[in-house]
Amino acid sequence: MIRKIRRFLTVLLVVALFAVSFFLYGVYISVERINLNYESIASAKIPQDLNQVNIAFITDLHYNGFMNQERLTSMFEKINSTDPDVIIFGGDLFDDTANQMPDESKQAELLNLLKSLEAPLGKFAVLGEQDETSESMKEIAKSILYQADFELLENRSIRIRNESNSSITLFGIDSMVNGVPNIEQAFADINANEFNIVVTHCPDLISEIPTTAVDLMFAGHSHGGQIRIPFFGPIATVEGAKNYSYGTQQVGNTLLHISNGLGTTGYDMRLFAPPEVLIYRLIADQA
């Protein structure tokens, strides 16, 4: 009887130690250990001039919450070390902007950090729901992005070139939450024979886009759940990411990749959903 009790207490102690270890890892280590997620996509629609071009997708900074200058500086230095050709930002500069507007000091900090990101073929952005909680917050977000050399894509497209006339097309669509996405306006000039990339904040918007003509789509918003249980998924989902909340999924002809983002909100903890930067290499498939 005593032996059984000892075994039970030993098992209980081991379980408790595992639980404490996971908690401490999620609070003190995982939130700062950025994952560089390298992917590649090959297509005959990618021009040879853009072969081997690297696109870095970052999203959900949530600065002025748990994300501070020291943490974001370290993350951005790691992003720059990958030498991206293009950087795309998926929205949410600051955290909880409906209740706490960033002061001028925090705005200046984030501006300088964003300016430090380098991409010779351009930096592009869309807004997230935290960037559009009010008109004044939206103007702050737009001003910071503009001064940091990001081109804001509000329901419109732009061609990405590499010193030639050949190009791929990037479509930026406003956030489903707090924004005003205009699908018809954004895709007014879409050509299914060209390589097309879509960036928007909320992944569930994929149900409204022409997936037959879009090759790749980037989104964020969900943070991958922040806490994700293996084989079960996120412990909670949010509006705009109910149907698609993490990972890579094929939807029609579109490869949808949802980033975990960099920051946290609500609580400063991540489990099985580490901070993430997607780095996609374009491959001109001539086969």
Question: How would you summarize what this structure contains?
Answer:
24% of the residues lie in helices and 24% in strands.
Tally of DSSP helical segments: 5
Mean pLDDT comes to 91
| Ends distance | 71 Å
Tally of DSSP β-strands? 14
Shape: globular
* Strand order in the sheet with the most strands: 1-14-2-3-4-5
Low-confidence stretches: 8-28
Largest sheet: 6 strands, mixed
Question: Strand share of the residues?
Answer: 15-25%
Can you walk through the features of this model?
The protein is built from five helices and 14 strands. It is an alpha/beta fold. The strands form three sheets. Strands 1-14-2-3-4-5 form a six-stranded mixed β-sheet. Strands 6-7-8-9-13-12 form a six-stranded mixed β-sheet. The protein has a two-stranded antiparallel ribbon with strand order 10-11. Helix 2 packs parallel to helix 3 and helix 3 packs parallel to helix 4. About 7% of the residues have low confidence.
Chain-wise SSE layout:
Elements: H1 2-29, E1 35-43, E2 54-58, H2 69-80, E3 86-89, H3 104-115, E4 123-125, H4 135-147, E5 150-152, E6 156-161, E7 167-173, H5 183-186, E8 196-200, E9 216-219, E10 228-229, E11 233-234, E12 247-251, E13 254-258, E14 276-284
Parallel strand pairs: 1-14, 2-3, 3-4, 4-5, 7-8, 8-9, 9-13
Antiparallel strand pairs: 2-14, 6-7, 10-11, 12-13
Helix pairs in contact: 2-3, 3-4
Any descriptors?
six-stranded mixed sheet; single chain; 287 residues; 24% helix; 5 helices; 24% strand; alpha/beta; globular
